[in-house]
Amino acid sequence: MNRESALAVTRRLIEHVVADTTDLAEAPWVEPAENYLDPEVWEREREQFFFESPQAIGFAGDIANPGTFITTEVMGKPVVVTRDKEGALRAFLNVCTHRGARVAEGCGKAARLVCRFHGWNYELDGRLAGRGRSQDFEPVPLPTGLQQLPVSDRGGVIMLGVRPEMGQLRVEHAIDDILPAFEGYEFAKMQLVGSDRFEVDANWKLVTNLSHEGYHFATLHRDSLAPMMTGHGAADEFGLHTRWAFPFRGIENLRDKDESEWPSYPYAAVNHTLFPGTVIVANEGNAQMIRVEPGDEPGKSVVYFSSVGVPSVDGEVSDADRGTYEFGRNIFEREDLPAAAECQHGIAAREQPVVIGRNEVVVQMWHRRWRDKLD
């Protein structure tokens, strides 16, 4: 965010800490239990929110240079994103047009994408470059190039359309409303520090909401986050997207300094959530992305946790950024995700509505979005 916005957020957080308050919703929210359990609701959410909506899958710094590529899965579909030799960003299904094997693994630099099954190889722009015994496949009745997907890296965030028929313009403009909040963060320079994939026995909304309130810090994270951060928070909405900032302990001491001496970024963690629920926690010089998808039934999720940092002049990420990744991953894996699975089990056993408090304002924001957007 720019300095003016950073100062405004810092002022709000200081006021909350001093008064022991937080941003509040108008009233408690009641969420029906079936929205975590009902296969019909789950299937509609999968279709509308994930297959028919652009998805954030990474940062532009992961693939900043020509001749690089990254791979991932989105809603069970293998995807490869490339920066071709002309510097153009492209995305494809990571599927060889011969027999369906993958043409790339992991990430890195490559002159071509090569299927290890039969050796068919492709240019980074998706065109078929070569194949053994090509004469035995002529004439080919199907397209020979990789199946292209719409992709964008505006604002330093890679947005992808899971289906080829999604319009490119829709993907390019999916996060327009929140782009001003990304000003100042160097997402286009940040490189991967580490990534993990988790399968969780909890509905995707429960997992997403783990990153939307600080009410649980003092109990669930008593010995990990709570010594560093408080449960006070300032929340803002940017169209379909949100921002939530929660302060580091001691932020109130900035009152003793002139604002010209305040940090360029809030003395806080700043959590941005992109529709339908991908969380980007941004700090000066590093960031984490938590991407949650519905699993193969309402009570299961697939979660991708990744961390990036701005490398030094020698191209290496710092030990501090590695430490940030390990610290955040361990808390998420050992404390947050087990809590989500426990909640899912309890909601299924009780089959009664879930109450969301006024102090859980961002949780309410997202349940309202999901309800309003579900046809």
At CATH level 2, the architecture of the largest domain is Alpha-Beta Complex
CATH fold assignment of the largest domain: Naphthalene 1,2-dioxygenase Alpha Subunit, Chain A, domain 1
**Derived structural class:** alpha+beta
Query: Roughly what fraction of the amino acids lie in strands?
Result: 25-35%
Return the domain count. Answer: 2
CATH superfamily of the largest domain: Naphthalene 1,2-dioxygenase Alpha Subunit, Chain A, domain 1
Rg over CA atoms, rounded to whole Å, is: 22 Å
Biggest sheet descriptor? 7 strands, antiparallel
What oligomeric arrangement do these chains adopt? single chain
Roughly how much helix do the residues carry, as a percent range?
Answer: 25-40%
Name the average pLDDT. Answer: 95
